[in-house]
Specification:
It is built from three helices and five strands, in the order αβαββαββ. It is α/β, with parallel strands linked by helices. It folds into two domains: about 60 residues; about 90 residues, 2-Layer Sandwich (Alpha-Beta Plaits), CATH 3.30.70. The model has no long low-confidence stretch (mean pLDDT about 85).
Amino acid sequence: MDNSLQKNKKANQVDLKTSTINLLLNIAIFLLITVIIYMSFSLYVKLHGVNKNYSSALTEQVPSDIIQVEVLNGCGVSGAADRFTDYLRDNNFDVVNVSNYISFDVTNSMVIDRIGNMANAYKVAKSLGIKNENVIQQLNKDYFLDVSVIIGRDYYNLNPLK
């Protein structure tokens, strides 16, 4: 009898050891399946969901209530930037900087979006009478303003001088 008891005890220990290993393996398989499902879902969202939301966010831009503008004289005519500044301030734009552009040979006036909201730039361009094709985007995190206006040699055709 002692022999059969030892065999039963040994069989129970082997069964306990085997069932513990099986339990740990099942938990590991479950965790791996969970990670695979999560990664698959994440990949699906990145490929299908985010692009649609991003493009719709771009098309639904709204101009800010307060648009900070810098006016740069690119035509070389003395006082042009001041005249544009007065006009913009009269139309409720916040002009934060008035200066000369790097050169005075700018042919067409342009509006540059600096923060990624083109609606602000289009609003300023419309107010000044600048065509939408002369509105561009150059994002610059170092600028603390929304829009730059560069006055070109066509300044006399724009709203501030009409």
